[in-house]
Design a protein that fits this description.
Structural class: alpha+beta
Order of helices and strands: EEHEHEEEEHEHEH
Shape: globular
Strand content: 15-25%
Helix content: 25-40%
Number of domains: 2
Length: 184
């Protein structure tokens, strides 16, 4: 798996994991990539710090806390390079237009746990107060929008194309959050 730093046209930065560079290109071409902040489908790879290793003597003397974490970088041709922990540079992002570099910061694990718990509560509330319509989600949403059936909370499954068509028809819908246990 390769972790790419991604950026949308509005400048929102985020990360994505892919099997290889071709997988990124394929998902982008099919419209599967969206910015989590604004929903834009105009996503591209952001500038990533290259993996540059020093001499063995320098590596033995390098004792910073970041040296215990393996790093990945993507070369100009899209190939993945994994640098051993003792040779890994500190990840950096380039601030647009400033020429300055800033260190990447890992989010607080307790915050992540709290966010996941709130998402779980939100999902449970939606499921408890809505009707499951399965693969008929787009059809049911349209019927409610055009007053062909009573308006109620529903959830189910829809393809990306169906969701795009609903949006074009002025019908708002949101995905239910995917929780970590659902990815395993």
């Amino acid at each position: 798996m390769i972790k790419f730093s991604l950026q949308c046209e509005a400048g929102h930065g985020f990360e994505g994991w892919f099997r290889n560079s071709d997988d990124f290109d394929s998902q982008k071409a099919r419209g599967f990539l969206q910015c989590p902040a604004c929903g834009s489908e105009h996503v591209s790879k952001a500038l990533m710090a290259p993996a540059i290793s020093g001499t063995r003597t320098q590596d033995k003397n390098h004792n910073s806390p970041q040296s215990s974490v393996p790093r990945e970088a993507v070369t100009d041709d899209g190939a993945k390079e994994t640098t051993p922990p003792s040779q890994a540079p500190v990840p950096a992002t380039i601030a647009q237009g400033s020429g300055e570099q800033s260190l990447a910061v890992q989010p607080d694990l307790s915050q992540q746990t709290e966010i996941v718990q709130k998402l779980r509560e939100l999902r449970d509330k939606v499921v408890a107060n809505s009707d499951y319509v399965g693969d008929k989600f787009a059809d049911e949403a349209r019927k409610m929008h055009f007053n062909e059936t009573e308006t109620r909370g529903i959830y189910g499954h829809a393809t990306l194309q169906e969701v795009k068509e609903l949006s074009e028809d002025g019908i708002d819908c949101l995905p239910l959050p995917i929780l970590p246990e659902e990815r395993n």
